[in-house]
Design goal:
With 231 residues, the chain is α+β, with helices and mostly antiparallel strands. The protein is built from 4 helices and 12 strands, in the order H-E-H-E-E-E-E-E-E-E-E-E-E-E-H-H.
């Protein structure tokens, strides 16, 4: 079986999109929401309005329509939610982001990155959680893996069925507002998953330092597939 990283390297030569195909990659800009970003020191990241204002400023400054990034970023934003922080050991605190975020306006169409079928879907309503989420299963020869699309609109889950066929570049949802997406500025959380274990309509998108080795292997960097690192 071809190693998954090699599969991604081969595929990154193609044009894959996750957002409205009418938004050119030239209008994407990198966004740093890590604890190392000094620009966030004066921003209340526990407030979706304040965080959204910061993201809008980054977009305006770079004349961009989409801000992206976040893979393996350590973030403070999750400290606001008991969903991520029930542990007393600091090394068990879930604060390392293991997907790719793409920040854009609510209602922006979200596209399936590969042909596949709907594995599961769910509205994850914990504070700070994904909100409406779709998981798609993909098969290429002997290789099976999954993609997760989180922080969607409620409408995105309508008329969805497990096993339903989806096609590459098909619109499978749209970005939700902060009222339904876990209380974040509108964005897509996209994640590659090799072994989805027993999860349905959900999968951890944030991990602790103690779990990082496993999740780095099980959830490879999506930027390698999408070619965003060169924009």
């Amino acid at each position: 079986m071809i190693p998954f990283k090699e599969f991604l390297i081969q595929r990154c030569k193609s044009d894959y999109r996750l957002m409205d195909a009418n938004i050119p990659l030239s209008t994407y800009t990198k966004l740093d929401l890590s604890t190392d970003n000094p620009g966030l020191k004066t921003t209340d990241t526990s407030s979706s309005a304040e965080l959204g204002k910061y993201i809008d400023e980054v977009l305006e400054e770079n004349k961009a329509r989409v801000a992206y990034g976040g893979y393996l970023e350590k973030r403070t934003i999750y400290q606001r939610s008991a969903h991520f922080n029930k542990q007393t050991n600091p090394n068990d605190e879930r604060n390392i982001h293991i997907g790719l975020d793409l920040w854009a306006k609510a209602g922006t169409p979200v596209l399936a990155v590969f042909d596949g079928e709907i594995h599961s879907f769910k509205n994850n309503t914990n504070y700070g959680d994904y909100g409406p989420t779709i998981v798609v299963k993909h098969r290429f020869s002997e290789l099976t893996f999954y993609t997760l699309y989180g922080h969607l609109s409620l409408q995105s889950l309508r008329d969805k069925n497990v096993g339903q066929t989806v096609r590459q570049n098909e619109v499978i949802g749209e970005l939700g507002t902060s009222a339904v997406n876990g209380d974040y500025p509108p964005h897509l959380h996209f994640q590659l998953i090799l072994d989805i274990q027993d999860y349905r309509g959900d999968y951890p998108g944030v991990c602790s330092i103690n779990e990082l080795d496993f999740y780095k292997t099980n959830c490879p960097d999506p930027e390698l597939l999408l070619g965003l690192s060169s924009t």
